[in-house]
């Protein structure tokens, strides 16, 4: 009795022709190599983007002036020390910052915090508007040391010893 091809396929016989067997998708070396290259490229791109943005968190005032044409009106962060020319103009705060001998005129639309004062380093977020840096955000750098304004206030409320 002869076995037909239909009967062989229906019974799941081991005599199924090799051309009908399915290979796993990543079975060939070429496919594995292509998948590895794609993954390596994606990982390399993510690392490059993360490291380049992390290393240049802000530009100092002198770097920002030197790169002014390249920066254009794109938002970026600038760092410098506040000069003594701070004054309010309506809702804006006008002042200058300096770093490494270069001074930059600043117009800040945000009201500065109480720590903001001349001689304090700041990081500003904003963009160039002509020769002036228009700041949307003011971040005041401060030291890790804390000077208490009223050192005896809490001591007087402590319970007396035995």
Explain this structure to me?
The protein has 162 residues and is α+β, with helices and mostly antiparallel strands. It has 2 domains: 22-55; 59-140, OB fold (Dihydrolipoamide Acetyltransferase, E2P) (Beta Barrel), CATH 2.40.50.140. Helix content is 27%, strand content 28%. The protein is built from 4 helices and 7 strands; from the N terminus they run H-H-E-H-H-E-E-E-E-E-E. The protein has helices spanning 5-11, 29-55, 61-66, 68-71, and strands at residues 59-60, 76-82, 87-89, 92-99, 102-108, 121-129, 132-140. A 5-stranded mixed barrel has the order 2-4-5-7-6. The protein starts with a helix and ends in a 22-residue tail after the last strand. The mean pLDDT is 79.
List keywords for this structure.
162 residues; alpha+beta; OB fold (Dihydrolipoamide Acetyltransferase, E2P); 2 domains; 7 strands; elongated
Compact overview of the structure:
The chain is an alpha+beta fold and 162 residues long. It has helices at 5-11, 29-55, 61-66, 68-71, and strands at residues 59-60, 76-82, 87-89, 92-99, 102-108, 121-129, 132-140.
Tell me the count of domains: 2
Count up the helices.
4
What is the CATH architecture term of the largest domain? Beta Barrel
Gross morphology is: elongated
How much of the polypeptide forms β-strand, as a percent range? 25-35%
* Sequence of secondary-structure elements: HHEHHEEEEEE
What percent of residues adopt helix (DSSP H or I)?
25-40%
Q: Strand count, sense and closure of the main sheet?
A: 5 strands, mixed, barrel
CATH class categorisation of the largest domain: Mainly Beta
Helix and strand content put the structural class at alpha+beta
Please tell me how large the radius of gyration is. 33 Å
């Amino acid at each position: 009795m002869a076995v037909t091809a239909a009967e062989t396929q229906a019974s799941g016989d081991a005599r199924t022709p090799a051309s009908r067997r399915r290979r796993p998708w990543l079975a060939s070396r070429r496919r594995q190599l292509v998948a590895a290259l794609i993954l390596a490229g994606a990982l390399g791109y993510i690392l490059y983007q993360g490291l380049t943005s992390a290393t240049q968190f802000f530009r100092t005032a002198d770097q920002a002036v030197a790169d002014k044409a390249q920066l254009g009106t794109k938002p970026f962060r600038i760092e410098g020390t506040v000069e003594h020319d701070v004054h309010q103009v309506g809702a804006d705060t006008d002042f200058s910052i300096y770093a490494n001998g270069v001074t930059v005129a600043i117009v800040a639309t945000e009201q500065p915090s109480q720590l903001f004062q001349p001689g304090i380093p700041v990081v500003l977020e904003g963009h160039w508007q002509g020769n002036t840096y228009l700041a949307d955000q003011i971040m005041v750098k401060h030291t890790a040391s804390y000077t208490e304004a009223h050192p005896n206030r809490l001591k007087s409320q402590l319970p007396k010893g035995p």
